Amino acid sequence: MEFKISPEQMKSIVNYAYKNMPKLAYHNFAHVASVAKRAKALARAEGIEDYSVVQAAAFLHDIVYYIGNKDNEEKSAIEANQLLKDIGVHAETITPILGMILATKLPTVPRTALERIICDADLDNLGRDDFLQKCELLRKEFGLRDVVSWYTSSLALLKGHQYYTQSARKDRTLGLERNIQQLTELVLDLPR
What we know:
Layout: H1 7-20, H2 29-45, H3 52-60, H4 72-86, H5 91-103, H6 113-122, H7 131-142, H8 147-160, H9 166-189
């Protein structure tokens, strides 16, 4: 069976995300829209013709996000499951979407090609030019004042990160290395 989301179902998913995404500094509709755009590009680059399921997962992966909760992905999967059933998505298509949502939980452990794509799309910013701006949005979202600790833990995340798909590695490895260098210099320059 081919997994597919119809254009009408996708419209319902996007509208739902637009109306129901948390209104946080980082985890908001702009974030999931960015992840959906990158997931589409990665899916195409990886030879997946129908990218609708990765886009659906992208729009719903953070639909439930409470700062500090360790089960946001599980709760997002539950909410996504109900929405997808309500709009008539087949159960065989819902299963991989829920798997992708759950795969975004840190530390990521994707098991399928689609899960690898969504994980790379979700953490795409680690290798982008706007990494420091996104990092600062996350710090503000979490309400953290200790900049040294935040940047030090962010640096550890970057150093331990590896993209899963060939396409993401090709597009973002140099940026990831550049961001590690920038963050290292920033941490060294911060007053203690």
